[in-house]
Hints:
- The complex is a heterodimer.
- By secondary structure, chain A is an alpha+beta fold.
- Among the domains of chain A are: 3-181, Roll (Ubiquitin-like (UB roll)); 536-619 and 789-934, Aldehyde Oxidoreductase, domain 4; 633-770, Aldehyde oxidase/xanthine dehydrogenase, molybdopterin binding domain (Aldehyde Oxidoreductase, domain 4), CATH 3.30.365.
- Chain A contains 24 helices and 36 strands.
- In chain A, strands 8-10-6-17-14-15-16 form a seven-stranded mixed sheet, with helices on both faces. Chain A has a six-stranded mixed sheet with strand order 12-20-19-18-13-36.
- By secondary structure, chain B is α+β, with helices and mostly antiparallel strands.
- Chain B has a domain at 56-115 and 155-306: Uridine Diphospho-n-acetylenolpyruvylglucosamine Reductase, domain 3 (2-Layer Sandwich).
- In chain B, strands 4-5-8-6-7 form a five-stranded antiparallel sheet, with no helix packed on it.
- The mean pLDDT of chain B is 95.
- Classes of the chains: A alpha+beta, B alpha+beta.
Amino acid sequence: MERMHMRPLELTVNGRRVEVLVNQNETLARVLRERLQLTGTKQGCEQGACGACTVWVQQPGEDEAPRTLLSCIAPAVRHHGAHITTIEGIADKGRLHPLQRKFVEKGAIQCGFCTPGMVMTALDHCNAHPDTDRQGIKEALCGNLCRCTGYKKIVDAVEEYALEASGRRTPAATDPDAHFRMVGSPRPGIEAERKVKGEAEYADDIFVRNALHCRFLRSPYPHARILAIRTQRALAAPGVAAVLTGRDLPISFGVLPISQDETAMAVEKTRYIGEIVAAVAADTIEQAEQAVKLIEVDYEPLPAFLEIADSLADCGSKERIHAHGRFNNNIHKKAELRFGDQQEGLARSRHRIRQQFRFQGVTHAFTEPHAATAWWDQDGLTIITATQVPHYLHRYLAKVLEVPMARVRVVKPYVGGGFGGKSDPFPHEIIICQLARITGRPVRTRFSREEVFLTNHGRHPTEMTVELGIDDEGRFTALDAEIAIDGGAYGSFGVVTSYYNGVLLQAPYRLDNFGFVTRRVYTNKPQSGAMRGHGAVNSRFAVETLIDRLAEQAGMDPCDLRLRNFIGEDCLTVGQYRITSNGSALSLNSVRERSGWDKRRGRLPFGRGLGVGCGFFISGSALPIHWNQYPQSVVHLKLDLDGRVLVTSGASDIGQGSDTMLAMVVAEVLGLSLDHVFVLAADTLLTPIDLGSYSSRVTFMAGNAAKMAAEQLRDKVRAAVAAVHAVPAEELILERERVFTSDRTVDLGWTEAVEIATRKVGALNTSGWYNSPKLGGDFKGAGAGLSPSYSFGAVVAEVEVDPATGAVKVLELWGAHDAGRAINPLAVEGQLEGSWHMGLGQALTEELRYHEGLLLNANLLDYKIPTTLDTPEIHTTIIETNDPEGPFGAKECGEGALHPAIPAIVNAIHDAVGVRITSLPIRNEEILHALRARTNTPATA
Amino acid sequence: MIQTGTYRRPRTLDEAIGVAASHQGPHRYLAGGTDMMPSLQQSGEDVMLIDIGGISALKRVRTDGGGFTIGALVTLHELTEHPALRASFPALVEAAASIATPVVRRSATVGGNLLCENRCIFFNQSEWWRDAIGRCLKCGGDICIASGGKKACFSELVSDLAPCLIALGATVTLHTAEGARTMPLEQLYTGDGVKPTVLRPGDLLTAVQLPDEGRRAVFRKLRQRATMEFTSLTTAVSVDAQGGITIALGGVDPRPVVVRGTASDDRATLVKKAWKGARSVENDMLSRSYRRDMIITYLNESLQHLLP
């Protein structure tokens, strides 16, 4: 930053007058965040396409009310003299604004990254339009993207605020007992106030002193040998402290021990456009960016493999993407399992359909870009990073950097959404650690939105052929799936994805004859990995749409056909999954009834239709990634004289609410309010290991571990009180922050009881753990998809199709999901609504599109997440079946709900206009062409 | 990160034009900045920003006997909220309301929308991206990548106001070093995707004149989401009191495609003419064939609505 370009800028921010010297090119967002440390204003896209940076501005001399402004695209200098209001200025001396209070109470906050922008936009709207209504609110918020909530609870919160603020509705009386109500009672996230005030610190909000900034040189070739890299000019550039290339970090890694095929930077060759080839650490971002441009790389381009078909075929004389693998092709993994006699089953089918399906890749599109800061000191390495898997990162930092795990600390701050996209150890995390090591200074980095897209790890582009048959009684005879998935350049979770595509089809229906083969191929594109609903979303779509067609052929109602085939409770699937509680039928019957299915389906006017789909998913993987005897989750509790219980857990809250879940479980067992519970999570130095937030495992596993630890603590308190008061320990009840016997001969306050329990021994510590029971069959591949419990669900969608354009609008969505028992119904609803919303996106508008291996739509304008106006009214039902092994009966709710949403929409399109869709995203023109083909309308004038 | 040489905030029109004329290097006028800033941030162009946001004379909507004069700095939000415009030109208000998002419309201006940079999925990318693919005509290269190597740029005009205002018979006023001139809006556009408007360095678009002739108009916009989208196809069709028809298309050509006719003309011929006039290529998330197909659908529906 040259001095001649600096200008003094005077602002009044949240009533405080400030004067800073700014570069003429600095955006207002950057000034607020970096110079004024007002990090509540978030940067999600840097092009005004996500709304996270929304602030209010009132220009000098303007007497109008302040207006909303996207601060990430606003040059700061033009606001000289202006009054700016940020999220930090909305609460009144620390007390939440009534709208903020509604966001908290209504569960409108999950990851919280979009929340500040949402509040700024919503409050501006309500101030200008006190009489606003639900539609008005949706229109006002349509420029603020949220990836977690499906907007439902956000719109609910704003609507209720508007009604109350304008006197149209009287606030409901608050329930004084809610304070003590835990499991089964809807509770705001324990960190929600921090998020709604803009105080929660995400990775990019944490400024470690004296930090260098890291930027990356990325490959412009999909497949090329690196002949030479010259870094001298970059090293000599102003402010540059270090430059790294692939040879500096040659040790391979990968989230799965069986696919260690990635390095921090390309070493011998690059395998996708966007792969990191070199990295620079410099005093400023600009200096790092300038220096990156000075690095010279000589490449020898190699033929690229960009399509699944190319990678399935023999390579001939072309060089394979990876040298490992037994054959001369780019197949990474072939997974195949067969049960029963598929041929026999198909042969006796009354109706059978074999159909090809095709799916574009989609990506997580969490609102918070990857960011991290790393440093070394006398305690070794510390990295603060936006991750779902601190433990796996811990392992691979130790491996690649060749340091003992005891010298590595991974800290997860607040994370702005993950959905599987932050569940791998990432190159940038390893690189900044190495840069910090060689420079002796902290190093930070933050991805642009383009880099987030290039990093991908999203859902695999998929091609599959699926065959399903039914017999005369309407029972499924056999299911066969032949699947090919596009893994991109590296392994990631791909081996698991390969299995999940197939194995997760063996329920929720009874199938005696079932088999699949999945081939995962490498291609020269950004890698695919785990994304919400991992592995099974596309194959579930295929099966659920085939069921709709078979029902049509058999003259059955699609709901009836499904009900006839559900597998039921307490049984084994053909692949020996142990099914315990099963809410399939309850879910389906719920959405059937609520949507008016029996009266409306098939009877709506042309262009309007209803469709149904069902789902099935794991509640955590029974088999850990790393084969050892360590429990899958451990939770520690510490209770000291002050009466507060400290819960430490490695589980990563990425917005789904796991910290709150842990607190509620502990409070429930100990009869406490949350005032006496504090959660410290996801810090590999301070918290015991949890494998991470993926595969919908946290509530089941960490919840059970927390429950066990709390029960131990309860027993210790009981034993101590029992000894002093000479009553049997089991007669002591812990409720409402008291410890008492039913006859009240003993009746102590919580802190009194704690004083007794800690006498002479000091703080009480307990440790709970969870390990999955031994499950599964005795055959190779039996472990894939094994879970201690499974979730089930159903969705009915109502759509409107414009026959003139083929445009599809989803009008309503009724969803029901068997979550076992909702520990926190508010959070469970939020997970379900977010899942259905993400399914809506994949169904209608989202896809990653490439041109010769280069991602064309690496931004939030062209990668189209549904906005408030694209999202239908969602009607949510939680089905409770009380899982026998889940904590208080709970099981998965964060991913499985996505599965039924997409086929429900597509089946509804058939009900509306009679067109069958077999590829995603749904393209209007495909519907249009199908309609025209039927009526022989010419395509053009 | 942009590397702006300097920043100025003139108070008057003449001052702005003077600043531009006296500056040696390249400059850009900054109005709402919602379109220009993201592209400057992406391209890293070294330009002087002349912030015209302080020129209050350009922020007014005036009415006279014959119609309206809309200052270039009137925001899209103000346009949508203007009672008289809402009453007289519902299609124009609909067009304005279809642009971007409510927060963007608080800053984005009428002038800025008319001069919105043409877009193409091969152009609206970072510098790294452009280097990776090999530069296209619009950013210093010598071929159009979207069209597979043609020597012309097919970046699309994406202003939603432009087709609508053309259909409504609008003119625009340019202030240049030589003085002011007014021209039909249509003539603002060159049809060359690399340099889509006739504006020369220093020229400033200051106002739009909208005659109140009682034209009835229909606006349609093709997009995947209900909001937050640049257009994939904009159609505006108007009919005046004498039965004169004006059809204007956006989003399918580097310039607005304009076709005129009368109520007595064969409609299919008019529609076909517009369809043929659109030089669109595969440079949008929606396919070329679908966008072209929708030209016909939208125009037929619009004409049917206006002349049932």
